[in-house]
Amino acid sequence: MFKKVSFIIVLFIVFSFNTDSSSVENQYIKSGEKLTFIASFNISGVMTDIAEVKMETSTVKTKTRELLRLKCTASTYSSWDKFFKVRDLYESYVNPETLIPVLYKRSIEEGTYKKELKYLFKRNSKIAISTLNKKGYKDFKVEVPITNTTLDIVSAIYNVRVLDYDNFAIGQKTTTKLIVDSEIESINITYLGKETIKVANSGSRVCYKLEIGFVGDGLKKAKGGKYIYITADNDRLPALIEANIPVGRVQIRLSNFSK
Q1: What is the DSSP string of 155-212?
Q2: How many CB atoms lie within 10 A of CB 59?
Q3: Cα–Cα dist 56/30, whole Å
Q4: CA–CA dist 100, 98 (Å, integer)
Q5: Average pLDDT of the segment spanning 166-180
Q6: Quick one: what percent of the chain has pLDDT higher than 90?
Q7: Which residue spans within the chain are E strands per DSSP?
Q8: Cβ neighbours for 137, distance < 8 A, ≥ 6 positions apart
């Protein structure tokens, strides 16, 4: 079971996605935001806290432009490290107005397994140059075909937060594509309306409820729903994520935030 813990943590990143639009207009995500989440897994019928996920934004200036850095870290609690230690880092550098990525970096340490992956997005050429470093591979490069709006898994989380759900019909389904492990994945998203849930330490809030469905087979097609709740206000916080996966049930809840 413990060798699946990393998938549980990454699940938070992997199943939050943007709809298939040409671009978004970012009115909500600004530099200086900090979000903290608790990842829990059903162990013997009890939801048990096993890891912490942190997300934060900051401004990065290059010689030619200003980008928004989207940083995500995932780490098991010290009490779980002896079973399977996880220290993951994900970063996406995006256009602050559209949240379209320019560069993506991933560095993972999960048990004895280590891996580094980078995507350099070349929109004019419609490719992303993927560079992989892990045992047996050194600067292994692959060109992945993309569109003008192809996302990585981190920028996708932020894109899903800024869409105008008040103009979505209940049951409306859309599809998007993003690059995961140097391959293009297709995801279906269904808008299910609004629900009121508890959000961190700020009381109850009305949230948009989305259901995520993966196209294809394997681990991503586990039985049961996968849901994400986004606060229906100017904070647009990813308040709660719930999902069934092949090794059990996962819950990832927002525990603290500052903007």
Answers
A1: HHHHHHHSS-GGGSPTT-EEEEEEEETTEEEEEEEEEEEEEEEE-TTS-EEEEEEEEE
A2: 12
A3: 10
A4: 5
A5: 87
A6: 61
A7: 34-43, 46-61, 66-76, 86-94, 101-110, 113-122, 127-134, 137-145, 173-180, 183-198, 204-214, 226-231, 238-245, 248-258
A8: none
Q: What pLDDT does 214 receive?
A: 67
The proportion of the chain whose per-residue pLDDT surpasses 70, expressed as a percent, equals 86
CA distances (Å), origin 49, targets 131, 172, 180, 230, 243: 34, 33, 26, 21, 15
pLDDT surpassing 70 at residue 195: yes
Taking CA atoms, 238 is separated from 81, 132, 228, 246, in Å, by 26, 30, 7, 23
**DSSP bridge partners of 154:** none
Cα(83)–Cα(197) distance, integer angstroms: 33
Higher pLDDT, 242 or 92: 92
User: Count of CB atoms within 10 A of residue 86's CB?
Assistant: 24
Read off the pLDDT of residues 45-104 as tens digits, 9 standing for 90 and up.
889 999 999 999 999 999 999 999 999 999 999 999 998 899 999 999 999 999 999 999
Alpha helices in 61-109 (DSSP H): 78-84
The HSE-up count of residue 203 (CA atoms within 13 Å, CB side) is 2
- Write down the pLDDT at residue 153: 87
CA-closest candidate to residue 3, choices 108, 112, 137, 115: 112
Res 84: pLDDT: 87
DSSP 246: T
What's the burial of 61, exposed, middle or buried (CB within 10 Å: 0-12/13-18/19+)?
A: exposed
Specify the pLDDT at position 96: 95
